[in-house]
Amino acid sequence: MDIQDYMTTLGRQARAASRIVSQASTAAKNDALNRIAALLRERAPQLLEANAADVEAARANGLDAAMIDRLTLTAKGVEAMAQGLEQVAALPDPVGEMTDFKRRPTGITVGKMRVPLGVIGIIYEARPNVTADAAALCLKSGNAAILRGGSEAARCNQAVAACVREGLVAAGLPETAVQVVDTTDRAAVGALITMPEFVDVIVPRGGKGLIERISREAKVPVIKHLDGNCHVYIDEFADDDKAVRIADNAKTHRYGTCNTMETLLVHVAAAPRVLGRLADIYLGKGVELRGCDRARALVPAMKAATEEDWGTEYLAPILAVRIVDTLDDAIDHINRWSSQHTDAIVSENHTRAMRFIREVDSASVMINASTRFADGFEYGLGAEIGISTDKIHARGPVGLDGLTSQKWVVLGDGHVRS
Amino acid sequence: MDIQDYMTTLGRQARAASRIVSQASTAAKNDALNRIAALLRERAPQLLEANAADVEAARANGLDAAMIDRLTLTAKGVEAMAQGLEQVAALPDPVGEMTDFKRRPTGITVGKMRVPLGVIGIIYEARPNVTADAAALCLKSGNAAILRGGSEAARCNQAVAACVREGLVAAGLPETAVQVVDTTDRAAVGALITMPEFVDVIVPRGGKGLIERISREAKVPVIKHLDGNCHVYIDEFADDDKAVRIADNAKTHRYGTCNTMETLLVHVAAAPRVLGRLADIYLGKGVELRGCDRARALVPAMKAATEEDWGTEYLAPILAVRIVDTLDDAIDHINRWSSQHTDAIVSENHTRAMRFIREVDSASVMINASTRFADGFEYGLGAEIGISTDKIHARGPVGLDGLTSQKWVVLGDGHVRS
């Protein structure tokens, strides 16, 4: 079958299914999620077998160790997938929420109803758990989904897809509510992102290259997550212990996550108090430090930072360090270099802290907390489909609400406009 | 000066100004708006003179009567512009609103802050009032704006722009917070919609062709308003008098607006009760009727409708009429043909009315009210920058809130993630 025809068929089926799942009861959606979870547990041996075949093929194709690591599914991973589905089932259903109804001077009553977006296309790289996670979030929010996983995980993705289909059917929902693209042909992605008649929004999950390409070529809106070049600013009025604890955690809790700090900014008055302590911690954990001249004067073990460092998301045990003279300089640095993902201030001074969160134009701004908290679970969303660095629709962690929007409802009693 | 360089300069200036207006006090923004209103009134003679020159040139270029009509500014129009600015000044400031702060199990407190989008590019056709309206909405919502009006209105737009600049400066705000593109070169539009580093969102206002072209070519998100193919469905359980009043108003109150009804759907049991009465009204007002066979059997003066009629936004005294057997058929027709702008049901039956508003996937859904109410002023937004037919970010009338988004705020006390 021609790839364009195949994708058109998926699109048409998704559009039809979306009308049904948009109206499905919370009970039916939760029933499907719980059944899928049970099926995943029941078929863990087959999932692991399919994954092993994926991993073997990936090794034969010479994929690097990090990629193999992300691809590999364990028994614990299957259990985590199942639990994830059950957690989404336990979340409140956002669909149908009616809010803000107010009587207008004309006599009509105007308010809003929360509704699904329709059909969501999700494109991701070789992580088997995304298939189950994304299916759960789309279904719970009343959307149909078309999922396109990395070709390296194809066998495992299809095994998960079979569980999803069976769970949907057992709950009385259309099996086409979640479709996993069953071809490794790259043209499938091109088709998926250029079918506005069938797909309402695209969520790409993966490396920057993938996301940039999709954003460039898509003919539908994209909820995208580009870099996480995050900052911690230690203010003159910081509590030193909090500063050290936060700057340590923000960098070293995990190196490869998008909410990891990549540049540490320190007020010139705070630097002598905290930079030595922090350098001991970082160097002890094997973090390479790259600093401005003034930072290097305090910590000679630092290498020299270049301008390129300010703009780099290392995703590695490397940290850029810069000393700034004022809060304004810190804010200017962040608004110039940050990827608008997550930035934090450490300060006991209320006015400075409030200025920071007002003036730093990032999806998440924090006072006296580690950037590592920027996460759907930590924020109470229950789960996340991704972290948006866009400025419209949804900023930061995107949960069930981010997969919905609000339509206007007008209640009249024969009212006409005069 | 090269057009690309010129637009880059405007973009850079807008980005810098956006940082300042995003932090400007409500008082300063309102002061600017009121000063601009005063300047418009003071310079009404010059504005009318500039507009007269635009109109003369447009006539010489052979523009059609409707276009000339939209282009023409009257003394009353200037006063309406000034009042519009004052009305926006009187609206609550959306910027800085902090909501939904909740303590999480980790001890952090997580909530949201409403913030401007940044820089908004607005592209519109020859309507002089849009320059003042759009400037006001962008400024009040803390955004910088780059406005590109139709070349036919260039003289008048620049005269309005001068008032805006002077008002901004008098209020202590940067004059580059609102910039009106001062070239009629069409390449300016191409540049404006492809500068993601300087422009955060594009709002095109004008004909479908303009909006489709911009949506296709833009490299930044577009808040767009395409067709308004709106429906009224008269249910079996409709109150006949309300049905006639609403169907009359939805079609004949104004023919050229996007919230005007273009197709009337009537339940087969209601048709004998209301269709004759409505046909008398429509034909008496010179509305051409195009119906399905069953409708024509009841009203022989109707012409035959073709499938093309169901998909057409006439913007004219023409109405398509179709008789349907069930509520489901009505919903199916609407979800198949509607432009998802505004659709209404007339029914006294609660269950049917609720099914209609839940299942019709349009930006505005109404019970027993005329589609003509779909409007930012009628909904209480105070003003609107346009009516979105998109499904993400904002659906329906877009007011000040639609020109903002929410960032996440995390408040800690030295909290780190474990």
Automatic annotation (TrEMBL), chains A, B:
Gene Ontology cellular component list: cytoplasm
Keyword Isomerase: no
Keywords: Amino-acid biosynthesis, Cytoplasm, NADP, Oxidoreductase, Proline biosynthesis
Compartments reported by the entry: Cytoplasm
Gene Ontology MF terms: glutamate-5-semialdehyde dehydrogenase activity; NADP binding
CDD domains registered for this protein in UniProt: ALDH_F18-19_ProA-GPR
EC number of this enzyme: 1.2.1.41
Biochemical pathway: Amino-acid biosynthesis; L-proline biosynthesis; L-glutamate 5-semialdehyde from L-glutamate: step 2/2
One Pfam family here: Aldedh
Residue intervals of the Aldehyde dehydrogenase domain: 12-280, 310-374
Similarity section: Belongs to the gamma-glutamyl phosphate reductase family.
Protein name: Gamma-glutamyl phosphate reductase
